[in-house]
Design brief:
381 residues; six-stranded antiparallel beta sheet; 2 domains; alpha+beta; Rossmann fold
């Protein structure tokens, strides 16, 4: 690899246990990530983080997506692993592909096709997470090289694919978004790319100047301190932030689910002090790795209907205290004030109606984009 180039994450999905009853048997998956940075050489990363046994990849391809399950003619490239067309991913492990020669522009849609030749039952503990994008599952067979893959089923989960990297110039940076469903874009319109990291990526491309990749490692339900559907923010910080290729910056928006305690576990009821201690640890670990960490204030949920009794005055006091510390505590290398961007000035415990998807917790498509607009791009200079 040339000394003046390095690998930078252009897209990511945080590994987690896949939801629902999911199983495969001689199926081909076609997943369609939208990258941030472009380039002429890329690689993909596959994860078996939550698998209980080795995962066999029979064949894989990456291409430019046309529409639906179709690829742009002539853009398909075989994905190899250590020179082989197939691979085995050990339980709990990640697999990096060999470099792939394919010219891709910024904000391009890719089609990553994976053939799973053997049975992968639900008891395998499949790695994936919801995507707010449509993925395609074939009838039985290897269809990775098909221009238009036959479709047997649809899914809105990312299965096994956890990252795409591009070989970029040495000055290119990378930002990782670490968060919960408000970063993952829950309730946003499927296939509309309205998550706030999507908006940040669009703004960085439009700005020009120093190239910056954007990797969305949001994970629905995630908390700072306690596990649920995958690891807590503190537990996954090394994997999902520090280990991301080319990362120079990270943006953390975690704490809403710590406060809501939607699983009603008394031993997991948290205080502002506990949340601040957890976030403080993230700042220390980021700085030790030479990564600038940007803190994000927690948005209001005082009229939430997504879950009954999630909000109460005590939890609101803790939210305000955490936000005050993020803004004024000096622990972070920068701050993005999502609370100020979305809250109703007349009722500051709630989002403005126009920015609310209707459940009092998750933003609307325009609300998510407003969050992406609230980040000062000078933080990445």
């Amino acid at each position: 690899m040339p000394s003046n180039r390095h690998w930078v994450g252009t897209w990511a999905a945080a590994p987690a246990p896949a939801e629902g009853v999911v199983g495969f048997n001689n199926h081909t998956l076609r997943l369609n990530p939208r990258i941030s940075l472009g380039g002429d050489r890329l690689r993909v990363r596959l994860s078996n983080a939550y698998g209980t046994r080795p995962l066999i990849i029979g064949a894989a391809q990456v291409a430019l997506r046309d529409k639906g399950p179709a690829i742009v003619a002539g853009s398909g490239r075989t994905v190899r692993f250590g020179g082989s067309d197939s691979a085995v991913i050990a339980a709990g492990a990640v697999l990096f592909s060999d470099p792939i020669e394919l010219s891709v522009p910024p904000l391009a849609d890719l089609a990553v096709s994976l053939h799973l030749p053997g049975e992968v039952p639900a008891s395998f503990a499949i790695t994936g997470r919801y995507a707010r994008q449509t993925s395609y599952i074939s009838p039985p067979g290897n269809f990775v090289a098909e221009g238009v893959m036959p479709v047997g089923n649809l899914s809105d989960q990312w299965f096994f694919l956890c990252g795409v990297d591009v070989l970029a110039s040495s000055e290119t940076g990378g930002v990782v978004a670490l968060g919960d469903s408000l970063t993952d874009g829950n309730i946003s319109t499927i296939d509309a790319y309205c998550r706030w990291p999507d908006q940040l990526a669009r703004r960085l491309v439009a700005r020009g100047g120093r190239p910056i990749g954007v990797a969305n490692n949001g994970l629905g339900g995630n908390r700072i301190l306690h596990d649920i559907r995958g690891d807590s923010g503190l537990r996954r910080f090394d994997r999902d932030v520090l280990a991301q290729p080319g990362v120079t910056h990270a943006i953390v928006m975690l704490g809403t689910n710590d406060l809501r305690n939607r699983w009603a576990r008394p031993e997991e009821e948290v205080t502002a002090e506990q949340m601040i201690a957890g976030l403080q640890q993230m700042t220390v670990r980021a700085r030790s790795a030479g990564i600038k960490l940007i803190g994000v204030t927690l948005t209001p949920f005082g009229n939430e209907t997504f879950m009954a009794n999630a909000w109460n005055p005590t939890r609101e006091r803790h939210r305000v205290a955490v936000n005050d510390w993020i803004r004024d505590g000096g622990a972070f290398d920068g701050v993005a004030d999502f609370d100020a961007a979305l809250r109703d000035p007349e009722i500051p415990t709630q989002m403005r109606a126009v920015d609310d998807c209707g459940d009092g917790l998750h933003p609307s498509d325009s609300g998510y984009c407003r969050m992406g607009d609230a980040i000062d791009l000078a933080l990445f200079d």
